Amino acid sequence: MDRSYLIEWARRSRGMTQVELAEKAGTSQATLSAYERGLKSPTLKVVQRLLEATGHDINLRVHIDWVQHLHPDVVPFWSPSILWGVETPACFARLTIRDSLRDGERRTFHLLNREERKRAYELLIQRHHPDEMIRWIDGALLIDVWDELDLPDPIREAWKLAVFIAREPFDVDAEWYAMEQIVPGQTSQVWNRQTKRLRVPKPPPPRRSRFDPRPPPAEG
Question: pTM of the prediction?
């Protein structure tokens, strides 16, 4: 996407004027106008700052290549080059689709339920198009149930590489992250825009005893 269009789209989507965005992002209206008109080309760092001022962010998107397989023992199916993630709550949706593995009736699968998710994934993988699979199949949740899915051998073979890549050990040194060797608080899909610490209330002062050591007055 063109950087000038991206900046203008982000600004207009928030109903901001050039003056408002320039002031919030710490630049001039003239410079912002030049960016949007394509007269000047901002660096990615500048684009990021401008987008953050509108409440947006530059993000990475995984590109997946799909291959259709024609096998004599099963109906045509698709396999991906790599697995992907589906954000919550979509990955736990109540998904209603036609059950073409059984009687063709429409059924609802609650993806939060592990057993129902397995049945839905079996159906999606065997009978549905990639456009539908990427919306509802989460890679991590798929790996969790992969060995339990009832899938024909040709499909397992076609998905083997993507599953292997997803299962490849990923060693993480938390201290290395903390030393800011990478951008802290940010992944390819999300970033920590703001973190607010709660103020710990001060404990109330200790109650002073009003004990009077003197004996009570005698009754007379």
Answer: 0.67
Distance CA(133)–CA(118), nearest Å, equals 13
pLDDT in tens, 140-198: 999 999 999 999 999 999 999 999 999 987 777 767 655 555 566 666 666 666 777 78
Q: Are residues 123 and 98 in the same domain?
A: yes
Tokens 């079996």 belong to residue: 122
Spatial separation of the C-alpha atoms in residues 35 and 29, rounded to whole Å: 10
d(CA 60, CA 189): 6
The type of residue at 74 is V
Angle at 118 between CA 116 and CA 124, to 5 degrees: 105
Give the domain extent around 115: 66-167
Distances (CA, A) of 52 to 12, 21, 99, 124, 183: 14, 10, 44, 37, 16
Quick one: 39 and 78 in the same domain?
A: no
Q: Which of 12, 195, 167 is nearest to 83 (CA)?
A: 167
Residues 100 and 128 in one domain: yes
